[in-house]
Amino acid sequence: MVSISGGVVFLAGQAAVLGVLVAAVLAYRRAGVALAWATVYGALLGQNADHYLLGLPGRPLGERVVALVGLDGLVFVGVEALALGTIAWVVGAGGRLAVERVRAA
């Protein structure tokens, strides 16, 4: 049996909101889900870059860069991007279908 004690998950709220809004607009404009994922990933990765490179001034630059490009952090941001990008794409594509049906009626 595997047990994990404690742990906190941080989500960059403003970056996530921006990425989700842009991804939903792209889905409304008939862009694919992969572009929605990439949009959210870019927004979240940009926030991470701001945090690690500009928000930790007391640490050496090399240490900050290593923290930014660490595999666990990049994968975590990827999982967030997959979840949020998929939700945004479904909302955007659903909005497009709803608008098309209203216009056709």
UniProtKB/TrEMBL annotation:
The domain of life is Archaea
Q: Which residues cross the membrane?
A: 6-28, 35-54, 74-99
This protein's UniProt keywords:
Membrane, Transmembrane, Transmembrane helix
Name of the protein described by the UniProt record: Lycopene cyclase domain-containing protein
Species of the source = Halorubrum ejinorense
Q: What is the lineage of its organism?
A: Archaea, Methanobacteriati, Methanobacteriota, Stenosarchaea group, Halobacteria
